[in-house]
Amino acid sequence: MTSLLLWSCLLGKAQVNRLIEDARGCTSAEECTLVPGRSCEFGCWIPVNEAEADNVQQAIDDYEASTEGICAVTCEPKPDVDCISSHCVAVHDVD
Fold this sequence. Notes:
two-stranded antiparallel sheet, 4 strands, 37% helix
């Protein structure tokens, strides 16, 4: 039973990651936004196309609810977001 639950979680995480990857497409920085991941599963800030942000947030929330929030992370301040090579990406300041 434990291995079935683990496999289900891994499959669910893979589906959310696929959704995130599919949601990253862009043609300009104005199309991009950041969705808070708030977990070690997906990181702190997930860059996606604004049109897909609600879908991505819902998928992350549903996944985390099904796994009872396996782990949380302390997130750094929100980075900037840009469209680079047709993908939304987080841009962190480097001092």
